[in-house]
Amino acid sequence: MAVVTFVSHGGERHEASLEAGRSLMQIATNNAVPGIDGDCGGEAACGTCHVIVDPKWSEQVGLSGADEEEMLAMNPERRPTSRLSCQMMVSTSWDGLTVELPEFQM
Amino acid sequence: MTLQRAVIVGASHAGAQLAASLRQEGWNGEIVLVGDESALPYQRPPLSKAYLAGRSTLGELAIRSAEFYAKQEIQPLHATVQGIDRTAGRLVLSSGESLAYTKLALCTGARPRRLRTPGADLAGVYYLRTAADVELIREAATPGGRAVIVGGGYIGLETAASLRALGLEVTVLEAAERVLERVTAPEVSAFFERIHREKGTDVRTGALVEALTGDSRVREVVLSSGESIPADLVIVGIGVEPNTDLASAAGLLVDDGIVIDDRARTSDPGIVAAGDCASHDMARYGRRIRLESVPSAGEQAKVAAATMCGKSKEITALPWFWSDQYDLKLQIAGLNTGYDEVVLSGDPSRDRDFTCFYLRQGELLAADCVNRPRDFMFSKRVITDPTIPVDGLPITLEHR
């Protein structure tokens, strides 16, 4: 089973299994990961599914696209590997991926 | 020990979020999520877009998976609630059965306002609220067919865009002098009218529907001007009415929607409500407002869940909305009611991206952002907390 780990701002870890064909945001909400709301349901319209990808993984999972970039630009917690998890279609080859959550989703 | 059972009436955005939040807030008892549609809670905004266009399945629109509800021990119940017995603490279902509750949440949503003109009950006249509604429209929407949309609001315009993409001839009839009149500035209305006309939609404003005529199906829409517009299908998008019947019958205070306070409590503090059915006294705007918005439904649901668990959270988030039409993403931060000045960034008469900032006495109140996510995020932050320093302002605000 391929596993992704979400690390909350306070350091709490939540593991979830990676299901191909879903977005990372859906994996998080389906596994009740606190701190990922996904208010708009995956339309890159709200910015409430922000995650910071472990830099070791950023090459494999990719950096933010233009739409995400625009949504993240104003975010004070934004980091170079920030992504909107609704825009990340997961692959089972991401086994071991770790992403951090910001303190606030906005 | 007696069994604790939270019952949520209504299984759409608010109900689904409330159920999930109850577990996050530490509710240990049963959770029953009662809905009158057979599917698990699904995303409604894509109905007029990807789902109508046939680009997504109902399964893909599920807000959360079946496994989620199983793991979280949330029981979906397909049933219609007929009444609330507050004294006994139980619901009466239309099957005749009853369902006892310890805590009750009403997330009953809203239903489309019906067209009252003669002929409105003809076959071929549709409303758009549920997946089942859209499946009927999809069946009737054959390429080359003629669709008439009554109402130039968000639903009407989104539907127009989707039907054009499916190859139909589309006419939008708006009774007011401009589309989106209730919600946007004239500049923004003119922008959307231009875009839809460029895409080949016949947008008519000041167009009052007098009657629908036909035989076994609707064939024509007759306007008060006397003109008739041929129609193979008619879609009515003239707003919604909150589902407050249960609440009223149970003696809860209802005024437009089910009246709730900052903690999502109804006039019976043991019963909470959230979503399109709820009317909330918003300190930010100094009046009671019933919001029809997915994000607000989610926010109210989170607060309602905390209240049910004996915690204290308040509904404070800034209202916001979004709408997708063609390749345009409109994001709206805040409510513009009471604005006295409009500042445009970009030219809506020419461009395909711009922002319309709404100000009151120099202070930012709201923003309509078309293909400008950065302006949207900026506006959301600044309206929420005007003291936040933000670099790279798209506009200069006097009070800064």
UniProtKB/TrEMBL annotation, chain A:
**Domain 2Fe-2S ferredoxin-type: from-to ranges:** 2-105
Q: Which GO terms describe its biological process?
A: P450-containing electron transport chain
Q: Which domain of life is it from?
A: Bacteria
Q: Which GO terms describe its molecular function?
A: 2 iron, 2 sulfur cluster binding; electron transfer activity; metal ion binding
Keyword Iron-sulfur part of the UniProt annotation: yes
Q: Which UniProt keywords apply?
A: 2Fe-2S, Iron, Iron-sulfur, Metal-binding
Extract the Gene3D superfamilies matched here: 3.10.20.30
Q: Please verify whether the record's keywords include Ion transport.
A: no
Against SUPFAM superfamilies, the record matches this protein to:
2Fe-2S ferredoxin-like (SSF54292)
**Which PANTHER family does the entry link to?**
2FE-2S FERREDOXIN-TYPE DOMAIN-CONTAINING PROTEIN, FERREDOXIN/ADRENODOXIN
Q: What name appears for this protein in its UniProt entry?
A: 2Fe-2S ferredoxin
Q: Which organism is it from?
A: Nocardioides luteus
From TrEMBL, chain B:
- What protein is this chain from? Pyridine nucleotide-disulfide oxidoreductase
Q: Which residues form the FAD/NAD(P)-binding domain?
A: 6-301
Q: Which residues form the Reductase C-terminal domain?
A: 320-385
Is Oxidoreductase one of the keywords UniProt gives this record? yes
Highest taxon above the source species: Bacteria
Q: Which SUPFAM superfamilies match?
A: FAD/NAD(P)-binding domain, FAD/NAD-linked reductases, dimerisation (C-terminal) domain
The entry's cellular-component GO terms read:
cytoplasm
Gene Ontology MF: a single term:
oxidoreductase activity, acting on NAD(P)H
| Upper classification of the organism | Bacteria, Bacillati, Actinomycetota, Actinomycetes, Propionibacteriales
Swiss-Prot/TrEMBL keywords:
FAD, Flavoprotein, Oxidoreductase
